[in-house]
Amino acid sequence: xxxxxxxxxxxxxxxxxxxxxxxxxxxxxxxxxxxxxxxxxxxxxxxxxxxxxxxxxxxxxxxxxxxxxxxxxxxxxxxxxxxxxxxxxxxxxxxxxxxxxxxxxxxxxxxxxxxxxxxxxxxxxxxxxxxxxxxxxxxxxxxxxxxxxxxxxxxxxxxxxxxxxxxxxxxxxxxxxxxxxxxxxxxxxxxxxxxxxxxxxxxxxxxxxxxxxxxxxxxxxxxxxxxxxxxxxxxxxxxxxxxxxxxxxxxxxxxxxxxxxxxxxxxxxxxxxxxxxxxxxxxxxxxxxxxxxxxxxxxxxxxxxxxxxxxxxxxxxxxxxxxxxxxxxxxxxxxxxxxxxxxxxxxxxxxxxxxxxxxxxxxxxxxxxxxxxxxxxxxxxxxxxxxxxxxxxxxxxxxxxxxxxxxxx
Length: 409
Ligand SMILES: Nc1ncnc2c1ncn2[C@@H]1O[C@H](COP(=O)(O)OP(=O)(O)OP(=O)(O)O)[C@@H](O)[C@H]1O
Ligand SMILES: [Mg+2]
Hints:
alpha/beta; five-stranded parallel beta sheet; five-stranded mixed beta sheet
């Protein structure tokens, strides 16, 4: 197959064959690909083809459709730019205006002067190139506009999300307050009941007939202390959740900040997690000795570390014994704290959600889903960053950074 013809196509619609032939020859001589036709309808057909000619020389008077009528059709129906030159014997100004109104770009009066025709074609070519450039720019602009629309949509979604988070925070504060009041009441009453119980039990046992086979009463008397203990632990759990909610609601407000040694916070957090760690998890520490201090509220930083450690323990527990590795380093003015575990890792589709409040994969009653969102708030209020990923060898890795305090030299 030969190389595709890259010559510019020029339509010549002229019903006088001899004149048509002359123009075809001239066009070929000037390096164009001539598309000849003998009437207005054939001209329209040729122009409507995909990759049809974008320059057209149209005779004014032709069978079926005149040159100006073809121009009108191009303007109103073709939807593609075609540079049109009308070839005419008419020289009256009114006629010329009528042609221009129909959408023609130029006129050449018969007999056509080859030089003038050539010059007009060159102008036409420039128009066609501008048009093509414009169409390309337009397409780029459209693409850009679509991208901007998508971006705006995404931003709007993020704003709604942020707004929801704020509402959730405000709601949490209100709910926490209400629950706290009721829990305090419950807690007080259960404690009072526990205190009174031995007296009540004694009285009830004494009141029962000596030989009476009252199994039910015996059972109740033995069960009540367990029920009360269960109630207490339930109340303790509610208090813990409420405390977390409160911290979440007030996460913008930081405690007193002071020069804090991150390695010390890690040791304190590990002490606090002693219970969680005992069963299945061992700890490996790689703590840099010359770590600079960070300006921070130590309790809050400890809280972040406790969340990290407890989460790692929770992830390790189902698959048996495992290791949590905690590494501290410094780089470009930041203290970096890395928590790695050999647990089950974080499902990739969940990675984005784990920092959202109330997002948890733990069973009902096991996780509140607030640990990481509270940690995120604390880190942000300290100018820090956070990043979670899965390790290639299994388990999760959490990289946290906090800006180091500048040291006086
Ligand atoms: N080290 C980890 N390995 C695997 N998944 C983790 C890890 N840390 C967090 N996750 C996932 O992130 C979720 C959210 O953690 P987050 O600490 O916010 O809440 P939680 O642990 O479920 O509940 P809470 O901390 O309130 O008891 C967890 O439920 C778990 O799916
Ligand atoms: Mg947690």
